[in-house]
Amino acid sequence: MFTGIDEVEWDSLRHAFGSAEDVPGWLRALASADTAERASALDGMYGAVHHEGRVYDSTLACVPFLFALAAREEVPDRGCIVELLVSIGGESAADGERDHRAWEAVRVGAGAFAALAGDPDPAVRRAAAGALVRFLDDPPRVLELLRRRLSAERDDCVLPALAEALGLFAQRYPAYADGALDLLAEQSAPPYPPGQRLAALGQLALRAPGRLPSDLIPVAVRLLRERSARRLPPGEPAGTDTLVRRIRRLRPSDEQGAALLRTLHGALGDRVDDRIALLTGQLTSPDPVDRCNAVWMSAGLFRGWRGAYRRPVRLLGAQLGADQDRLRDAAVSVLAELYALAAPAADDLYALVAARPDLWTHRWERSSPTLGGPLKALARSGDPRAVPALAQLLAGPAAPAGLGFEVGHLGRAAAPLAPALRHRLGRIPLTSPTAAPLAVPLLTAIRAVGDRAAVPELLRLLSAVPDGSGVWDEAVGQVIETLTELGAAGQAAPLLRPLLRTRHAAVAAGALWSADGDTPAVLPVLRRELTQADAGLRRSAVRQLGRLGPAARGALPELGRLARSGPARERIPAACALWRVTGDPDPVRPLLRAAWTADPRTRVPIARCLTAMGPAAAPLRDLVTAELTHPRRHTARDGSFGHHDIPDDEELLRTCREVLAGL
């Protein structure tokens, strides 16, 4: 197995953390009879030699020895070694690109995968199935090998891997695809076992949807339940805790079942109604493991697609009463990211909050308490029944960090919390380095509640930053915005005027103008801020000029330049401010149309601007109408996701409907 390993100059090779001199020890440990030693060695291979999917010269040097290890039946856990080889030769997890040196290194030894596909160890056979398609460059031979394995294979864990390999084959070799698809169609029907049929249906949905049965969703749900009835409960392997073992514990307890349904969901794509029906079948399964898998799958559906989600959300709420902590915690986690869409589950959330005060907060090791998931989800849904529990936390000695942000979602319903919020704001030590982080969530809550009685506390905070800097710098703008929204900018005028010479000049100028309308006093300040090198300061000035409206005509040259040729993030705010100042939509509409198409993340501010335009927005009706009929969330179209994607997209839909109503 290790012939020649000592001839490699490992100390001259590199991995993610420096010299590769430790690599031969890891390779030898992969063949150890000791489970913990093997797991630790696999940690080293993934953590350093193949760190985050990257390939180093030491990675390439390992490939022949990994093949030698995989070929020896006496070596335990060879399935993990084959998986490592596939990962090394595949696309990088870091950048999604293939390292051709690594691909070639694995492809040279790919003939070994043909033998491994019939190995006595099912874990090896499972990993080798996909490796055949990826690296053995002989399509007729690969298809024949897969055909033989399908006729001989009896292990329910290997059969889905063979179906996945056939799907990959059909994608990679279109000229030979019909043979693979015929095999999949055969495997998707009786008398084959339910897991095998589900796997075949998922691959057909991906590669040949025309071959699917018309009653796909009921069939898939029935097969899922039949498969679950056959499944044995998973066992937790004993041994030393390692990185690989910890990662595996985070996976679904029925990882294969999760993968089967995830493939089917992914293949259905924008068929949202079908996906909701499939999810509903999963969430009503008698098996809690199936339901837990469904909960996690629902997160991707909700986050990426628009749909009628009341029933699946209610079913998520029904999981909160389950005895299994894992299922309950998964449902809470998903509901907390739905915000107002979680309203159909509010009764179940409230029942959990009322029954389990111990879940009101959560504390990570050596950290301050944070708001617990059930109470957070209830507050984010806008349900006023969250208020009593939040009041108890605010009355305690240490309110959870960020609590005010969640209070903000309750709006005026959180008015009973106003005295406690004011009290906490008034107790913030003005010179503490934690002052701003403590204040910002409370300011969010006070604005949402509209608590004008908090003005003295706000003036106290503002008085601590006469030069607009120091520990309060992060929160100064929000203090001023809160005073402005509460109609108290006039009372703050003596404290605001010194800030006209600081980085908070724009927001201070806007507040002063809202108090007395003295345009000559603030317009020069705002025009000056438009020339700042700091993009954040320019955006703040643009926002304030838009609030001034026609009074800001003196700034039209600067606003026009920003709207036409400024940085992308500044063009739309500048264009909207330009319209508010001039009242002329003609120069602005082409800018809004171009940005709407080019950058979906600009659509919420554009839609707000169109709402204010009223009938003048009619020439852009087609954009709004198309948005309302598109099934994909605008926040998901670039493939990335954020915590506020769902509420941001729901705001876009709501605002688009307002635009149409105003035309």
What structural class do the secondary elements suggest?
mainly alpha
Provide the low-confidence segments as ranges: 235-239, 243-252
**Strands side by side in the biggest sheet:** 1-2
The coarse overall form would be elongated
Task: Give the end-to-end Cα distance, rounded to a whole number of Å.
Answer: 76 Å
Total number of strands: 4
Overall radius of gyration:
30 Å
Largest sheet: 2 strands, antiparallel
Amount of beta strand: under 5%
The pLDDT mean sits at 92
Helix count equals: 36
Helix content: 55-70%
What topology does this entry show?
Elements: E1 14-15, E2 18-19, H1 23-29, H2 35-49, H3 57-71, H4 78-89, H5 100-108, H6 111-116, H7 122-135, H8 139-152, H9 159-172, H10 177-187, H11 194-207, H12 216-230, H13 243-250, H14 255-268, H15 272-283, H16 288-304, H17 310-318, H18 325-336, H19 346-355, E3 361-362, E4 370-371, H20 373-380, H21 387-395, H22 403-407, H23 418-426, H24 435-449, H25 455-463, H26 473-485, H27 493-496, H28 505-516, H29 519-529, H30 535-548, H31 556-565, H32 568-582, H33 589-598, H34 603-613, H35 621-629, H36 645-662
Antiparallel strand pairs: 1-2, 3-4
Helix pairs in contact: 1-2, 3-4, 3-5, 4-5, 4-7, 7-9, 8-9, 9-10, 9-11, 10-11, 11-12, 11-14, 12-15, 14-16, 15-16, 15-17, 16-18, 18-20, 19-20, 23-24, 24-26, 25-26, 26-28, 28-29, 28-30, 29-30, 30-32, 31-32, 32-34, 34-36, 35-36
